[in-house]
């Protein structure tokens, strides 16, 4: 879904819903999670809806 939304933004000339900086930050977090030993990552404390770029 994210890739389709990005391609739509590129094709239409609109700004993507997620900025490049936000994408890089998400990727860095994902890589850290994959590199971390099993069981060493705590679950997030915050629950509920999160802000989404508009």
UniProtKB/TrEMBL annotation:
It comes from the Bacteria. This is Gfo/Idh/MocA family oxidoreductase. It comes from Candidatus Afipia apatlaquensis.
